[in-house]
UniProtKB/TrEMBL annotation, chain A:
CDD domains per UniProt: PTS-HPr_like (cd00367)
Keyword annotations: Cytoplasm, Phosphotransferase system
Protein's recorded name: Phosphocarrier protein HPr
Highest taxon listed in the record's lineage: Bacteria
From TrEMBL, chain B:
Alphabetized SUPFAM superfamilies for the sequence: Enzyme I of the PEP:sugar phosphotransferase system HPr-binding (sub)domain, Phosphoenolpyruvate/pyruvate domain, Phosphohistidine domain
Catalytic activity: L-histidyl-[protein] + phosphoenolpyruvate = N(pros)-phospho-L-histidyl-[protein] + pyruvate
Enzyme Commission number(s): 2.7.3.9
Family stated for the protein in its record: Belongs to the PEP-utilizing enzyme family.
Role noted for this protein: General (non sugar-specific) component of the phosphoenolpyruvate-dependent sugar phosphotransferase system (sugar PTS). This major carbohydrate active-transport system catalyzes the phosphorylation of incoming sugar substrates concomitantly with their translocation across the cell membrane. Enzyme I transfers the phosphoryl group from phosphoenolpyruvate (PEP) to the phosphoryl carrier protein (HPr).
Organism: Actinoallomurus vinaceus
Stated name of the protein: Phosphoenolpyruvate-protein phosphotransferase
Length: 94, 556
């Protein structure tokens, strides 16, 4: 199984708009991706409710997991997304 | 032809958004009641029903998101994603397999996720209420009922509802909604705040409005709180014509606030961030009378840093290069919990550690904020004032003023929200440079009526003579010491109350930006001596309704 560990860069944490962007990106991957905080249970990254329920704030380290062909590419793109401050990008859009 | 003075039925509520409107009513559909559970004979069919209900909910939310813009669009898109959530579907499937019918499987599954979010507290805890909204929609779809939420009758309408919550009004289009009338709710309810933000006529606490059938023509007077139900087309047309006249008269009003005889009154605006001023006509506005700083602190686990705060304050200061900006330090605590404050829950949060009281044990948040305000002020040409919320004693005021001055903030005042502060206004002004009266909290504490309580709306009415008497005491103390005393609660946005407040001696009125034209017009219609007479009439009344009636019948 491939894994990536990344700290949440968005200033409000993995909530609201950053969570929506992440969940949508996870659902668009070809492999199912799971996400966990520390040694907690891994939950589907394509589930908004599951992702919100992680309660991951700014700076929280999360681990992404996936199996199979394409797993590494999927994890790289999702980890890169989480490493960006999506709230700041929102402000720039406004 | 109908008798114009005697429409079929007159209802009375509390006018919270001035202005006139007439049109057919359409109601906010209420959430469906959950019927008794029924035995499930075909689990596959039941699951298909539940999934269809979730899909219909997702499609409805998606369509609403596509029609919305900005923040509303983001909120609705996130809600659509929740309706489509695979975890939710698994949960529903599990419930159906264990014997639940579709509506109960939906209810139970949503409730479980709601509890998880509520347990996380803070921002996510508040999102738990959004889940309820999605659950109501899905259950309505499963029962074959109309989706609860804003009606879309296809023509402009007067929106009627039991009460309006923020989630209900996301996507409310002020071009098609003519006015708001709610059965419950008070002057500080979300409905009132929304109406003022959108500039819509509104009446809250209007008993009987929900008995009026959809499509009935009504007239709404958002000043007096009078609603005429079942009026004829001619009366509706007359009211529309008066409303149009009123709008053009207000649009013609320009310049600073003053009475008919030239006594000047500072008209200022209440804002939460620089974004609130986009597209707002600031002609004659002397500045920001209440800059709420909470927006910087919400939705986060740690307090914002110094630099982030400096930048946010500087942005607002730059909008009023020649004006005054009154910054209120963080107003949070037991009533508005923030995770990084680490405050314990309290049985009576409104009476607990909130506002300036948070600084008793956690002064660093206040200190950082004052430093940030001072740094932003150094770079700005605006005259920057600071004030503390929830001050009760002159000693607290003195402590706050000393802290502010230590950072070089030269004008430091306090809010008057606690009756004790109003009673000791003269002593407060020995140390503070100004007072700003927060009428929403001052009502709540003076009348011992919870701000959130719709059932006590009449007590929370800013026309309560006891409240006006306390405002008068503060203004008199300000007058003796030559110090400004302003009002920055919802009361300041009520045009009919404006001359009363000025008659009591208030020197500044700060309100939502859209309320300025109506308040300016009303002030310009009275000489100062008339304002003082109106204040006497209001103070002499037995209750809020009598005070309003006395002033409106004496006015122009």
């Amino acid at each position: 199984m491939s894994t990536r560990t990344v700290a949440i860069a968005s200033s409000t944490g993995l909530h609201a708009r950053p969570a929506a962007l992440f969940v949508k990106a996870a659902a668009d991957q070809d492999v199912p991706v799971r996400i966990r905080v520390g040694d907690g249970p891994a939950v589907p990254a394509a589930s908004m409710l599951a992702v919100l329920s992680l309660g991951a704030g700014h700076g929280t380290e999360v681990t992404l997991e996936a199996d199979g062909p394409g797993a590494d590419a999927a994890l790289d793109s999702l980890a890169a997304l989480l490493a960006r401050d999506l709230d700041a990008e929102e402000a720039a859009d406004a | 032809m109908p008798d114009l003075d005697a429409p079929p039925r007159v209802l009375h509520g509390i006018g919270v958004g001035p202005g006139l409107a007439a049109g057919p009513v359409a109601r906010m559909a209420s959430p469906p009641a959950l019927p008794d559970p029924r035995p499930v004979t075909d689990p596959d069919g039941e699951l298909a029903d539940a999934v269809r209900a979730l899909e219909a909910t997702e499609a409805d939310l998606r369509a609403r998101a596509d029609a919305a813009t900005g923040e509303a669009r983001d909120i609705l898109s996130a809600q659509a994603m929740i309706a489509a959530d695979p975890t939710l579907r698994e949960g529903v499937a599990e419930r159906v397999r264990s014997g639940d019918d579709a509506p109960h499987a939906l209810r139970t599954t949503f409730d479980r996720h709601r509890e998880i979010l509520a347990a996380l507290g803070g921002y996510l805890g508040e999102r738990a209420a959004d889940l309820d909204d999605i659950a109501h929609r899905a259950i309505a779809a499963a029962l074959g009922r109309p989706m609860p939420g804003l009606p879309a009758p296809g023509h402009p309408f007067v929106l009627i509802a039991d009460d309006l919550a923020p989630a209900d009004t996301v996507g409310l289009d002020p071009e098609t909604v003519l006015a708001l009338v709610t059965e419950r709710g008070g002057p500080t309810s979300h409905t009132a705040i929304l109406a003022r933000a959108l500039g819509l006529p509104a009446v809250v606490g209007c008993a009987g409005i929900l008995d009026v059938p959809d499509g009935t023509l009504v007239t709404v007077d958002g000043t007096s709180g009078r609603v005429g139900a079942g009026v004829g087309e001619e009366e509706a047309a007359a009211v529309r014509a008066r409303a149009a006249d009123e709008r053009s008269r207000l649009a013609a009003g320009r310049g600073p606030g003053r009475t008919a005889d030239g006594h000047s009154v500072d008209l200022m605006v209440n804002i939460g961030s620089a974004a609130d001023l986009r597209g707002v006509d600031l002609d004659g506005v002397t500045g920001v009378g209440l800059f709420r700083t909470e927006f910087l602190f919400l939705d986060r686990k740690d307090a914002p840093g110094l630099d982030e705060q400096v930048a946010a304050y500087a942005e607002v200061f730059s909008l009023f290069p020649e004006g005054t900006v009154v910054v209120r330090t963080l107003d949070a605590g037991a009533d508005k919990p923030l995770p990084f404050l680490g405050l314990p829950e309290e049985p009576n949060p409104a009476l607990g550690v909130r506002g300036l009281r948070v600084a008793r044990d956690r002064p660093h948040i206040l200190e950082t904020q004052l430093e940030a305000i001072a740094r932003a002020a150094e770079r700005a040409t605006a005259d920057v004032w600071v004030m503390a919320p929830m001050v009760s004693t002159p000693v607290e005021a003195e402590d706050f003023v000393a802290r502010a001055r230590a950072y070089g903030l030269h004008t430091a005042g306090v809010m008057v929200e606690v009756p004790a502060a109003a009673l000791r206004a003269e002593r407060l002004l020995e140390v503070a440079d100004f007072l700003s009266i927060g009428t929403n909290d001052l009502s709540q504490y003076t009348l011992a009526a919870d701000r959130q309580s719709g059932a006590l709306a009449d007590l929370l009415d800013p026309w309560q003579p006891a409240l006006l008497q306390l405002i008068g005491a503060c203004a008199a103390a300000g007058g003796r010491g030559g110090r400004p005393v302003g009002v920055c609660g919802e009361a300041a946005a009520d045009p009919a109350l404006a001359p009363v407040l000025v008659g009591l001696g208030v020197t500044k009125l700060s309100m939502s930006p859209r309320s300025v034209p109506a308040v300016r017009a009303r002030l310009a219609a009275h000489e100062r001596a008339e304002c003082e007479e109106l204040a006497r009439l209001a103070l002499d009344a037995a209750d809020a309704a009598a005070a309003r009636a006395a002033v409106l019948s004496a006015g122009p």
